[in-house]
Amino acid sequence: MAATSTLTQRSMANSATSAQSSIYAEDPKAASSDASARGAAIYSQSWLLVIYDWWVLGVVSTYAWACSVPQYTLPWFQNNLRKGQHLDIGVGTGYYLAKSDLTGVQVTLADLNQDALDATRDRLVMEGKVKSGETRCLLHDITRPLPASCPKFNSMSLYYLLHCMPGPVPAKTVVFSHLKHNLTPDGVISGASILGKDVRHNLFGRLIMTFGNWNGMFDNRGDNAADFDEALREHFDDVETQVRGAIFLWRASKPKI
User: Is the pTM of the predicted complex or chain greater than 0.90?
Assistant: First the structure.
């Protein structure tokens, strides 16, 4: 916990100069909807970045969503991480990247929140996963196409992101229609998201769902596996999905261009 706190403080201190490391940076106010910005704003609070791994990825994922991150979600991420160019979207604290072998991986981070980008970038350096200056950052609303300067990516990841995005499933999955154009022909895109419909939530899960949807952190009461699966198959030829507890795990490759 102390190391994470130090990382967060360092990230906040560096925020004035972080735009220089965001080689694809753009104006987030121009690039984001109000609803998307509200969902991302929570990650500006340094206290949340400190407890996120323990609370969200530990306690809540295991006991509210019945899907252990070390047992299910982290291996799913690692099995779909490719060498070459990797784009991590909605970075949180960088937990998944920090727990993975990044040898031969050029990481690009994309998020609406500069604090989250700074904290993740600094964490990867501090934990020896990448060298200083190697990680690229993109301050961007992913509901819009990526900047033309972005390369083709060998893999992409969207973990615990879609349930935070505003609107019904069709509004969220529009991201697949443009992300597929930035994926290499043999690349893979994967993710995990909390479902609100057609899954059984326990009391703890219902409380988190109610609070999250009330304060704008979530917008997922109508999110269901069938709609996500259909949207993925609309844009990719090779799709694999599964539901663990209340979590929808998915991977897709062979983009339909």
Answer: no
Q: Is the Cβ–Cβ distance between 81 and 99 less than 8 Å?
A: no
Per the CB < 8 A criterion, the answer to whether 225 and 198 are in contact is: yes
Which residues in the chain show pLDDT less than 70?
1-49
Question: Which token pair is 165?
Answer: 């995005």
d(CA 76, CA 108): 19
Residue pair 155/190 in contact (Cβ under 8 Å)? The answer is yes
Pairing of strands 105-111, 183-194: unpaired
CB 151 within 8 A of CB 23: no
Burial of 132 (0-12, 13-18, 19+ CB in 10 A): exposed
Element (DSSP H or E) covering residue 208: helix 203-215
